[in-house]
Recover the amino acids of this structure.
């Protein structure tokens, strides 16, 4: 099977490309390299360009007529940045995605696997969410994901496009061979910040938000090893038609997480256990757009994808620390 991955030079995209290869499939990478590093493409089939470039999409389809599905990951993803740059987020995540979907439909590439986000969910008592629970996105980033879910549902109902929407929870860790991982010098996500503080590259790890309605006052998340997340993509493209047949609809939404909630303080404790010593801590108010959080009910993904997570949070932390030691070798910076 040949699979087009938009954003395939990114953290999750490159890991998913590796998982596809491990399962015997061939990824075709499309990436603008706005953020993803060229090194993560390695020797894979690669096109540098914009997802809204219709001529480029047509060229890819012409040169690879055996593409079976598209995994659409290309997006701006930093919540605080989306509060400051909403136009750029709506332009790149919404307007350009619509151009991509329309061109894919025109070219007969009807299977789309879309990267969505658990940040869409409204706060719920107990914090465990199913795909049918209410949504209340709190940032422009999250609202772009919600808009594209609705667009895909409408497009698939009206025409030949078919869509599986994966609502990611919180990917952490690296691929098994440490060939890719978090690549930004100042990652915004919690584990990247912990690694920086542990390695002395910043004075402390800051817990943002300590008065949330959780068991210890800090935000709650479902931290999934990125390799397990990548494996879920493989299962989704392999079982694409069967998933929609089982769902009885032209589109389907699936939570992709571990099924367990971990607070920020609990993550810090796990990190310190794996790391072997304490990390300096600080506290601050929540960042603009931050959500209290949720964890996934994964019954639907288990049933429709025949998939479940295999790796632990300690596995993910260990691989993130190991990747931090490889970054200089692969990317040229710590």
């Amino acid at each position: 099977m040949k699979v087009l991955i938009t954003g395939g030079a990114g953290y999750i995209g490159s890991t998913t490309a590796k998982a596809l290869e491990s399962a015997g499939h061939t990824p075709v990478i499309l990436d603008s390299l706005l953020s993803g590093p060229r090194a993560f493409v390695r020797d894979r089939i690669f096109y540098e360009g914009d997802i809204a470039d219709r001529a480029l999409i047509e060229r890819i389809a012409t040169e690879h007529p055996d593409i079976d599905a598209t995994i659409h990951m290309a997006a701006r993803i930093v919540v605080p940045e989306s509060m400051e740059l909403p136009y750029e987020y709506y332009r790149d995540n919404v307007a350009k995605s619509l151009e991509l979907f329309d061109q894919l439909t025109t070219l007969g590439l009807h299977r789309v696997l879309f990267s969505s986000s658990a940040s869409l969910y409204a706060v719920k008592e107990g914090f465990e969410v199913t795909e049918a629970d209410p949504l209340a996105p709190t940032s422009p980033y999250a609202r772009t994901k919600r808009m594209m879910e609705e667009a895909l549902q409408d497009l698939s109902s009206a025409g030949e496009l078919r869509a599986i929407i994966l609502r990611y929870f919180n990917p952490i860790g690296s691929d098994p061979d440490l060939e890719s991982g978090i690549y930004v010098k100042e990652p915004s996500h919690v584990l990247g910040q912990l690694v920086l503080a542990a390695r002395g590259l910043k004075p402390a790890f800051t817990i943002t938000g300590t008065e949330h309605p959780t068991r210890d006052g800090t935000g709650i998340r479902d931290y999934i090893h990125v390799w397990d997340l990548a494996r879920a993509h493989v299962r989704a493209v392999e079982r694409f038609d069967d998933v929609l047949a089982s769902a009885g609809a032209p589109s389907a939404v699936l939570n992709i997480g571990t099924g367990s909630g971990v607070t920020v303080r609990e993550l810090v404790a796990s990190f310190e256990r794996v790391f072997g010593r304490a990390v300096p801590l600080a506290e601050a108010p929540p960042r603009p757009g931050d959500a209290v959080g949720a964890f996934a009910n994964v019954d639907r993904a288990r049933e429709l994808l025949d998939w479940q997570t295999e790796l632990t949070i300690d596995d993910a932390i260990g691989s993130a620390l190991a990747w931090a030691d490889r970054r200089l070798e692969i990317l040229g910076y710590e």
User: Anything to note?
Assistant: Residues 2-172+222-256 form a domain with the Rossmann fold fold (CATH 3.40.50.720). Residues 86-106 form the longest helix (21 residues). The mean pLDDT is 95. DSSP finds eleven helices and 15 strands in the chain.
